[in-house]
Write a structure and sequence with these properties.
The chain has 14 helices and 13 strands. The chain is an alpha/beta fold and 416 residues long. The relative contact order is 0.17.
Length: 416
């Protein structure tokens, strides 16, 4: 979201980023104006504390915990605070992250135009492909399509948890919504996914306002992350990271470390995040550097392979550098991303319930020894370079809001 905000700002638009206090350092590092909201409900330190609970979960348990425990109080507080913040900042239009479920009824009520962004892998509600929460392969048999349709029932479960809060806000403000229609609150102007169309599964029918753009990549505007570059030996590099949220499963890191020990001809960098300490992950092999955080994009420029949780940003950043992957999806949209990694031949994946060191060794060896994975990743590197995702997304936003590059408009990026 900061990358898109910077792109719009560079085109002469006035941008303010609305969010919880904990994201202020990231926004400020991107040289963007920041307007905090929900300060009383979520003072600094609240987000890491609240979200630490998902770090040790996996599968659908991650999503269910998020929707049942974390999202309802955030949505309620946002309904209370966002209208006032919109009035204070004087925004003319909103760009909303879709992970902020149902928050779009605030601009609906205020008659403020809004565009929605899928930073994570978008959901296919048609049943043509598996919902991204599942790692099922793409198949078109009647049995597979029936399976996909059954998998969509979980969306009703999530909406059922949040619906009372949303309906209460709508009723208080005289807003009439057909709650039986899942698309009733979706932006009619534009819904943009940063997933490149070439990386998606084939979806026959998409809403007219749905747009593929390509990754929101901006190598500038990030907080600097120190790294011991002098320790790199020049051997082929494996970079391993399980992201920033569901990254507290120390047994997964131990399995990774046990597996990479079998590749002494390679050097390995493992980023374990802030939920664990290096001593929690077990003995560190001689060919491995373990850090809490790492300059991911810079390391991928040197990498021969990425071991990833299949988070969309890490996956797209790997492809942008032509780096093939071995994925260990843990939760959220990661199973769907992992299935696309395999579908497009840019890597392999193993479900976390089937993960063993031996399996991981075999997958690393397979991806390293078969040049097709590297060739396919290089093909995507060319595609992403040509796609210019940020420019495409900015063009769509400007058309949706009918503003020109020469005439500034006040926009807001609202995210928790």
């Amino acid at each position: 979201m900061t990358a898109l905000a910077r792109k719009l700002q560079s085109r002469g638009h006035e941008v303010v980023f609305i969010g919880l206090p904990d994201i202020e350092p990231v926004v400020r590092a991107a040289n963007l104006e920041f307007a905090p909201f929900c300060e009383n409900e979520y003072p600094p330190g609240s987000v890491p504390k609240d979200w630490s609970a998902v770090a040790t979960l996996h599968g659908l348990d991650v999503v269910r915990y998020t929707v049942r425990e974390l999202t309802p109080p955030l949505l309620k507080a946002s309904f209370e605070r966002l209208p006032t913040k919109i009035a204070e900042t004087g925004v003319d239009a909103l760009i909303l992250d879709t992970v902020y479920l149902l928050l779009e009824i605030v601009p609906m009520h205020l008659r403020v135009p809004y565009v929605q962004i899928w930073n994570v892998l978008h959901w296919d509600f048609s049943g043509s492909t598996p919902l991204t929460l599942y790692g099922w392969p793409h198949e078109t048999s009647p049995e597979a399509l029936a399976r996909n349709a059954a998998g969509l029932q979980i969306v009703s479960e999530f909406r059922g948890t949040l619906m009372p809060i949303a309906q209460s806000y709508a009723d208080r403000n005289g807003l009439e919504i057909d709650w039986s229609d899942p698309a009733a609150t979706v932006s009619k102007l534009a819904v943009i996914t940063q997933t490149p169309k070439e990386f998606d599964l084939p979806i026959p029918h998409l809403p007219p306002q749905f747009y593929y753009s390509g990754p929101f990549r901006d190598d500038e505007g990030r907080e600097p992350i120190p790294f011991p570059w002098e320790k790199l030996t020049g051997k082929p590099l494996i970079y391993a990271s399980l992201g920033t949220l569901v990254n507290g499963l120390n047994n997964v890191y131990r399995t990774i470390l046990e597996a990479v020990r079998e590749f002494p001809d390679m050097q390995v960098v493992v980023s374990i995040g802030m939920n664990l300490d290096p001593e929690d992950v077990g003995p560190i092999p001689p060919n491995t550097i373990v850090v809490r955080s790492a300059p991911q994009v810079e390391l991928l420029k040197h990498a021969a392979l990425c071991i990833t949780h299949a988070g969309l940003n890490t996956t797209l950043e790997s492809l942008a550098e032509g780096v093939p992957m071995v994925a260990i999806p843990i939760g959220y949209d990661q199973p769907g991303v992992a299935s696309r990694i395999a579908y497009h031949g840019v890597g392999e994946f193993v479900e976390i319930g089937k993960l063993t060191a031996r399996c991981l060794v075999d997958l690393i060896a397979k991806v390293r020894s078969n040049p097709s994975y590297r060739d396919n990743a290089h093909r995507f590197r060319k595609i992403l370079k040509q796609t210019r995702g940020l420019d495409v997304a900015a063009d769509i936003v400007e058309r949706a809001f009918q503003v020109s590059k020469e005439r500034p408009a006040v926009l807001a990026e609202s995210r928790g």
